[in-house]
Amino acid sequence: MLATQPQQLDLVFAALADPTRRAILARLAQGEATVNDLVAPFDLAQPTISKHLKVLEGAGLVSRGRSAQFRPVRLEAGPLAGVDQWIGGYRQFWAQSHDRLEAYVKTLQAEESSRDD
Fold first, then answer.
1. For 9-55, how does the pLDDT look when each residue is reduced to its tens digit (9 = 90+)?
2. Distance CA 90, CA 105 (A)
3. Which of 10, 61, 86, 106 is disulfide-compatible with 56, CB 3.0–4.6 A?
């Protein structure tokens, strides 16, 4: 069952809320890895990393392949595009707010300058 866009966004943000999961994604951005490769940099047991991977998989951020007896984990960046799009709306809001503030400051400076003359 595919999640609707708001549900998908909720799953992605929930997955990204944990620093260990963000670190796993950062590692996978360098290339696929096995679960054992992902366990190495953390002071966590393999079952704990597997639980983090399940959350990331549920959000669509990673996938697991099969290569002989290895099950490499890969980053799936597609769901991050939805996050970027959502944040982009706020980026536009803040850019417009900044532009309005800058125009207001210039108006105040011009008024102050004209009073000093």
1. 999 999 999 999 999 999 999 999 999 999 989 888 999 999 999 99
2. 22
3. 61
State the residue range of the domain holding 6. 1-76
How many whole angstroms separate alpha carbon 89 and alpha carbon 72? 35
- Between the CA of residue 18 and those of 10, 14, 110, what are the distances in Å? 13, 8, 48
Co-location of 68 and 112 in the same domain: no
> 3-state class of 62 per DSSP?
strand
Nearest to 80 by CA among 31, 8, 30, 7: 8
Mean per-residue pLDDT of the chain: 89
Q: How far apart are CA 52 and CA 22, in angstroms?
A: 10
